[in-house]
Amino acid sequence: MRLFKTLVVAAMLSGVSVPAMAAEQPAKLEGPALAQIADVSVGLKGLVCDFCSIALNKTFKKNKSVAGTYVDLDTKTLSIVLRDGAKISDKEITKMVKKAGYNVTDITRKSAGK
Amino acid sequence: MIRNDADINSLHIHYTPDTRHSIGLRLRYDRDAEALFTGGQINRLIKRWNEVDSQANFYGRIGVGRVTDQSSLSRDDEWGLFAGLSADWETRRYFISGAVEHWAQGEFGDKSSAHGRLGIAPYVANTGALHTWIMVEGHYRPDEADDEDVYGATALLRFFKGPSLLEIGVDDKGEPVANYIHRF
User: Which of A26, A52, B41, B133 is the most exposed, having the fewest neighbouring CB atoms within 10 Å of its CB?
Assistant: First the structure.
């Protein structure tokens, strides 16, 4: 009986502690949620498959100003989240998109100056 | 990339230093010739056309290596060379491609081939989801010893998710076909 109680308490504690620990983890900058908080949205030409998104993510990941990227095939958009205080120019974005093998149609920014 | 059909087993491992080039190792076992090619391969993206809803590409590739006998005939090793051109056009719904290739393998025989492929996606999936394609491939191999093998067709299902692409199919002689690509 004592063992049973111990197991029940342990199970309850583990049930509580897992979400609590998960809440402490910083949110990962990836996936469609990233598009909601993106600093820059880049319209693209030539986006037809997941290999395209891999090429773009890989290219932008190398840039020190970039905290995260997400490529949405439906909206043909590359969303970029910048690191705190970091800036990236339209020219730099266009150059990186071209390096990955694609073309830019338009660039929109959440706030001016980034 | 791993490619297996009734005539060929092929493995291509390559590194892409930039968007336009890749360099890698190519292994190709020719069942008819009973010969294994082991060598280097360079691919070049000669031209890409990007449109809002489509992409088209024109590629070239060359390779050089050693061809070794895998039969009981004890034939001497030979140098092998190959060159090819390919082009494709695709949207998220439709796919068309074509390729020509020539292999020079000395005593093991020279071979030319042409391939064409049509594909349609029954549904259009977004980033990271499972993409599915129904494809038909036709080939012309004029140097095949058996007349029945000169022309051929293969029906394929392509499954594509994230960095992995798997194709399974069957050719017009009932032989299975399996291709796999993984991008790192």
Answer: A26
In a domain, A26, yes or no: no
What CATH number is attached to the domain comprising B54? 2.40.160
The pLDDT, as a whole number, for residue A5 is: 55
First vs last C-alpha separation in chain B: 12
Domain that holds residue A41: 33-109
**How far apart are the CA of B74 and the nearest CA of chain A, in angstroms?**
43
Residues of B in contact with A103 (CB under 8 A): 50
In chain A, how many domains are there? Answer: 1
Complex ipTM tops 0.85: no
The answer to whether residue A4 sits within a structural domain is: no
State the nearest Cα–Cα gap between A43 and chain B, in angstroms. Answer: 9
B17-54 pLDDT tens trace: 888 999 999 999 998 889 999 999 999 999 999 999 99
Whether A99 sits inside 8 A of B162 (CB atoms) is: no
Chain B residue numbers touching A48 (CB-CB < 8 A) = 54-55, 90-92
Instruction: Classify B114 as helix, strand or coil.
Output: strand
User: Considering the domain boundaries, does residue A84 fall inside one?
Assistant: yes
What angle (nearest 5°) sits at the alpha carbon of residue B148, between those of residues B8 and B32? 30
Look up the CATH number of the domain holding residue A46.
3.30.70.100
Residue type, A58: K
Decide if A49 and B92 are in contact by the 8 Å CB cutoff.
yes
Composition of chain A by helix, strand, coil, percent to 5: 45, 25, 35
DSSP letter at B52 equals S
Q: Quick: pLDDT tens for A74-102.
A: 999 999 999 999 999 999 999 999 999 99
Judge: B128–A50 Cβ closer than 8 Å, yes or no.
yes
- Give chain B's domain count: 1
Domain membership of residue A2 (yes or no) is no
